[in-house]
Please model this.
Amino acid sequence: MASTILSHWAGGQCSLAYKFVGGVKFMLGLACVFLLCVDMLCNNWEVIDYVGNAKHLLTPLLTIPTTSKLIHQFAFPRHASPAQVSQIGQFMINTTLAHVQTRDSHTYILGTTKHLVKNSDNDICGQLVSSYPVRNPAAAAVQLGSVADFITFVRGDALTHWFGDTQTSPRATTGMNETQLRALGYIPARHGTDLRLTAAVALPPSGQPTAATVAMYRFFMRTFCTGSEPGTELGLDTCAIEYLYNDTTQTLDVTSSQAIVGNYHELGFIFQRRGGPVLALHVRLATLVLLIGVYSASQKTVQWMDFSTQSIPQRVLRLIAPPLHREPCSVFGLSDICFNSDVFVVLYTLAVLADEEISMVYSRNMNQWHVRGGTDVWLDVRLMSMTARWLWVNCFLLKAFKWTCNFVSIAQHTGDSQLMGWLNFSSVSWMYLSVVSLLERNDFIEYGSSVRTDLSSTTQNLDATSVFLLQSWYIRSIPSLAAVIFANLVLLLVVDHVVNRKWWQFMAANSLGRQLVFNSTSILANIPLDPAAQVRGAESVTMHARALCTFRWFLASHLTRFGLPEPPAAIRALTAAHNVNPATRVFASQKPKFLADVGNLDSVVAAPPPHVPTSNLSMVLQDSDGNIHLVNAFKQDIATTAIETMIQQNTHVTMM
Model:
């Protein structure tokens, strides 16, 4: 009686744990889909451009088609005039003027976010402090302008900061020329032209100190390769200035200029609309439709079919619309599909990389203002959705490693390659852990470029100084970023395999587990066990026939199979289990390689679960073309009609 009660209690605890894990998994899946939707809708350049919230940031330039008219309409200091900037600086100003005038389908005008001005960290009004010539002393007001033209020189990256001396060596000082900077190890990484324009400022009586607040517009043009079209950061601030007018010299002297603490800085961007971001938008839309279709199909029982006889169009259709039974079957969660489907991972990785030319710049600049501007939960979510995209780059890299490992390997059977077994996660939870380092991507890139200085056009003529793409601000950070991503993946894989070593032993000793771990591009080795599934030793697993059918469809349609045969010892073990008494253990003459890490499990066959006759034991395997088969102890395919009967009766299948 006591044993019966204990058995029921243990079963209840197992069921509760299973439901809890399933609930957590479902919530993580919803969070993943939520971030996908936020990214697609709120970081959608087409939508943001269509809404047009950044158009008002163009106000000072709306009626100015040329640089000469810009100089005529605004008063510029003699040393900070568009006429004094470098050739590249003039090119960037002319390009921005053209973008503002045309505002056509060749550009995105993106905005706008608002960032609190808390202190001097995000105060950019100081550039207005200067002396401005006044051409018409009789005018009631004058509009001010200022241009800073410079090339940013950077030394080292994150790895050399950590393991080298690029952060501790003597740094550049203000006023150094290019030769001196290069001697210290600095290289050009970005060309910037920072144009500031104000609203009209009233001319006071001569010599009278005056205080006023004025709207200041910012057009910060950057290019990461000399001669390429710039991207422009737009901004709008309210500055508190103190100034006086000198009638003798006909100059207006701004003696102080500060942002008003408590006000907001408005941020926007102008980017060229290239093919990459447009492609990324359409691909992301396709992946969302794919996710909805695949998840809907995975919640029902897929018919057992022969995939080898289908044409390519039929196989494409079967990705999201396989023939279904009406019986429900919750085998996969949303996150399983997002992170483990080859089709989804490849397409979304393509979208991520195609969109990086805008999203990397957009997220970096928005993050810089956000960090200095205080808490904004919605901006946090938007930034998280942009950086979380790189989860799929992680998945793609891991799948690529598995495919490459199979391509170069001389393994003849599943389980022969021990390296292949390490290229898998036991659950999606480990995938989500990898996002922790990815969320710091912007700060990591910023840290890699933290040893920098600006070479101004007032210090040296910049026309002969070039910025090369492969040495530019973002490209130069890719090797160190890739190294961190790789190290993060390796660390998580090692910890997962150490912590869950019993699970990996079970996966290596079961044919269904081996198909995932060793014989396909699956990177998630989570067999959908039922709460009441019985496992003996670490070699047999029982699951619903309905679950197996849907699982087989996903394996055959959404993963690349390698077509490796099962080890002969495993086939012999299945046959032996059918021929011996259930209480008898059969020992192999040699331990197969797929059991190399299974400790002291010298026997390759355990007695099947007590409720399953040995005649019902089966094995999942692949033929040389990667087609998946379920065979019995006689090495025969189990008939489709038999499987359909098991589906209707909702029975179990036990696999070794």
Residues 1-14, 530-538, 581-615 have pLDDT under 50 and may be disordered. The longest strand covers residues 187-202. Residues 57-274 form one domain. The CA atoms of residues 103 and 124 lie 27 Å apart.
